[in-house]
Amino acid sequence: MGCQQQSREFDLWKRPVWLGEKASTPSPQSSSVESSGDSTTVVQALNCFTIRILESTGSDRELNEAWSYLDEAAPMNEDWQMLHRNGLRCGIGQYSDWPTVRKQFEKCGTRVKTELPVALGTSTPMNILSDSMKSERTVFYYDRDRRSHGRDFGASMMQFTMTLSGRVAGGRVRTIFTPKILRPTSSLEHLTGKETRKSMIEQELENFSIVVDLGPEEFAIIGPSRQEMASSLVGSQLFLGWDQGRRRSTFLLISFAPPDTEGK
What we know:
By secondary structure, this protein is of the alpha+beta class. 16% of the residues lie in helices and 40% in strands. α1 runs antiparallel to α3. It has one domain (10-31, 42-256). It has helices at residues 60-67, 80-85, 98-107, 187-192, 200-205, 234-239, and strands at residues 29-34, 41-56, 88-94, 111-121, 126-130, 137-142, 148-153, 157-167, 173-182, 210-214, 218-224, 240-243, 246-256. Strands 1, 2, 3, 4, 11, 12 and 13 form a seven-stranded antiparallel beta sheet that branches. It has a four-stranded antiparallel beta sheet with strand order 5-8-9-10. A two-stranded antiparallel ribbon has the order 6-7. It is built from six helices and 13 strands.
C-alpha cells in the first residue's frame, strides 16, 4: 500500500475521472510475494482507491443540500436509522452528479485536508481515520431496539477501518467500514500473546459496519449524521471537532483510482 498526503483547497481538486468525464472500470493490479522456503509465488489482486478526507464548517442545513444528491439507502445495513442515531451517515453518488455535490460542499467552506491513494487487497483491513489517544473515554450507543448503552474506557483510541470483501455484480467492489476501539496491550495480552475477550460494546460497534458496493462510476461519502449530538456517540468522536470556535465536520470521500488516469 502506498500513501501520499496532500493538502489543497477544495476548488483546486479536479480530476477528469472523478468528474465522470472518462470513467472506466478499474482493473485489479497484482502483487507477487515469494516465500522464503521455496520459489512459490502468491499473487494477490489489489483494488486501487482514492480516499479524501474533507473538512467543513457548514451548518446541518447547508450540508443536507449536498446529502440530498446521494442515495443513503444504497449502503447495506440492517437499520440505517440506527446508524443515524449513533451519529453515522453514508451515501452513494454518481460521477454525473459530482459537480453539483461539489458546489454544495464549496458553499460550506469545505476543503480537502488529506488525499490517500491506496491499493488494498481482499480481507486486508486498513485504518483510514482515527481520533487521538485519550486517557479516558466514554462511549454511548443505541442498539436496534433504541436502547442506550455506555461504557467508560481507560486509555483508548477510536478508529474507522476499511476492508474489502471481494467483487460483486456490475463490476462493483464490496467495501466494509467499521468503527473500532483500540486500547494499549494489557499485561495479560503481553504475556499470553492473545487478545482478551472483547467487551459487549466493542462487539456491538461491529454492528455499525457500513457495507458499500462501490461501482466504477460512483463515489461514497461517510460522515456525521448531524452536528448537534452527544460527544460520546461514535459518529461524534470520529467525525466532529472544533475549528476556531466553530463546529468542524469531517467527511470521507471514497472513489476508484485507476492507476492509468494520472495526468489526464
